[in-house]
Amino acid sequence: MESVFLLIHLFLAVAIIGLVLIQRSEGGGLGIGGGTGGGLTTASGAKSILTRATAICAACFFCTSLILGIFAGTHTKDGSMFDQVSTEISQSAAEDAGADAKTEGTESAADADKAPAVPISE
């Protein structure tokens, strides 16, 4: 279901981009989109249709954004992020303590006689 809304969201985004690019600019800054006659109906009729279509697409885009946000919220785990991190830290500390206890009794005499890698100053 989430992928359906994501696909609709993508189509709405492309439609909004297309509708905005089709519309005639008020100032005629680039000199494109002008012209009179032709078009859907009259110049003002085409303007109102494009404006209305853009507004409808924008409202639908907003709704799909909210729905996708709700879907994203349902995938979260219980508890806060800090609880999850503290649980992971405690689990790794317990694993490290278990590993240290196992290797503590298995030190060989050769390892004990080795000099430290970094000399200790006196």
Task: Please give a structural write-up.
The chain has 122 residues and is mostly helical. It has a domain at 1-25 and 37-93. Helix content is 67%, strand content 0%. The protein has four helices and no strands. The protein is elongated.
Secondary structure blueprint with pairings:
Blueprint: H1 2-22, H2 43-74, H3 81-104, H4 109-113
How would you describe the shape?
A: elongated
**Helix-and-strand structural type:** mainly alpha
What percentage of the residues does DSSP assign to strands (E)?
under 5%
Output mean pLDDT: 76
CA-atom Rg in angstroms: 33 Å
Percent range of helical residues: 55-70%
Order of helices and strands: HHHH
End-to-end Cα distance, whole Å, is: 69 Å
**Biggest β-sheet description:** none
Q: How many strands in all? A: 0
* Count of runs of 4 or more consecutive helical residues: 4
Uncertain parts: none
Keywords:
122 residues, mainly alpha, elongated
Summarize this, please?
With 122 residues, the chain is an all-alpha fold.
